[in-house]
From TrEMBL:
The keyword Cell membrane does not apply. Keywords: Glutamine amidotransferase, Transferase. The lineage of its organism: Eukaryota, Fungi, Dikarya, Ascomycota, Pezizomycotina. It comes from Coleophoma cylindrospora. InterPro entries: Class_I_gatase-like, ThiJ-like. GO terms for molecular function: transferase activity. PANTHER family: SLR1854 PROTEIN. Pfam families: ThiJ_like (PF17124). Transmembrane segments: none annotated. SUPFAM superfamilies: Class I glutamine amidotransferase-like. This is Class I glutamine amidotransferase-like protein. The keyword Oxidoreductase does not apply.
């Protein structure tokens, strides 16, 4: 049985490395990959991470740009599903993946009440043993932390997780504020860092939130759920490898 993967994206703004590197890993693994945007529009990643001075300073590597160019011409990328369609469902997917990105456009998926409704139904089904899984990186973790159960708790309230470290976010923001303004603050100046937002949704953040400020790839897998998370673009190759392994181990033979 071929595993099915859904990559949920905003119309514009996701990080190209965090989107394309996992996509190619999923395709190489033989998975059937679909994309979904709110209304079925073909997405585009943050151009500032692909060209110009921001690309050279903090953007995608040439390898990641090549991966993005491959992904951008794929039929499934050019013709995504619509998560707001009445016919849309996550039920048939073995993996739902949320890339990150700090460009303000990613708020379209982070704040989507419709995506939250889908995840309230789907995420509990990833409790082990399960054929379903969720993976997220950077701001993608906020889609999960902002999705609330009927009791008001986040769907990942009892999970071990990581996300973009506040130290990384602050370094990028203050290091570029003079010429990029609040580009590196997705919700604007004065808003919570991603790490702070995610920690607020956890039952015991000091135990559940896992962090590393090192440059070595860092990925966290939860023990109770098929949920895996990472911090930033430097983690995504390992994230993709571990996610592929998790899906293969969990999928029916």
């Amino acid at each position: 049985m071929v595993a099915k993967v859904l990559i949920a994206m905003a119309d514009y703004g996701h990080d190209p490395t965090e989107s394309a590197v996992p996509y190619l890993a999923f395709k190489t693994a033989g998975f059937e990959v679909h994309f979904a945007t709110e209304n079925g529009n073909a997405p585009a990643c943050d151009r500032m991470m692909l060209t110009g001075i921001t690309q050279k300073l903090l953007g995608a590597t040439q390898r990641a740009i090549d991966a993005y160019n491959q992904m951008a011409v794929a039929q499934e990328f050019q013709h995504p599903l619509s998560w707001s369609s009445p016919e849309f469902s996550l039920d048939s997917y073995n993996l739902v993946f949320f890339p990150g990105g700090h460009e303000k456009g990613v708020r379209q998926v982070i704040d989507s009440p419709i995506m939250h409704q889908h995840l309230v139904k789907y995420f509990p089904l990833t409790a082990k043993p399960s054929e379903k899984a969720v993976a997220a990186v950077c701001h993608g973790v906020m889609v999960l932390s902002e999705t609330k159960l009927p009791n008001g708790k986040s769907i990942i309230h009892e999970c071990a997780t990581t996300a973009l470290p506040a130290r990384f976010e602050q370094l990028a923001f203050w290091g570029t504020r003079a010429f990029l303004g609040d580009y590196y603050k997705t919700y604007g100046v004065g808003s919570d860092d991603v790490e702070v937002s995610v920690r607020k949704c956890l039952d015991d953040p000091d135990k559940q939130y896992k962090n590393s400020l090192g440059l070595s790839a860092f990925v966290v897998q939860d023990e109770k759920y098929n949920y895996i998370s990472a911090r930033y673009p430097g983690d995504v190759e390992r994230l993709a490898e571990e996610t592929v392994a998790l899906v293969k181990m969990s999928s029916p033979k």
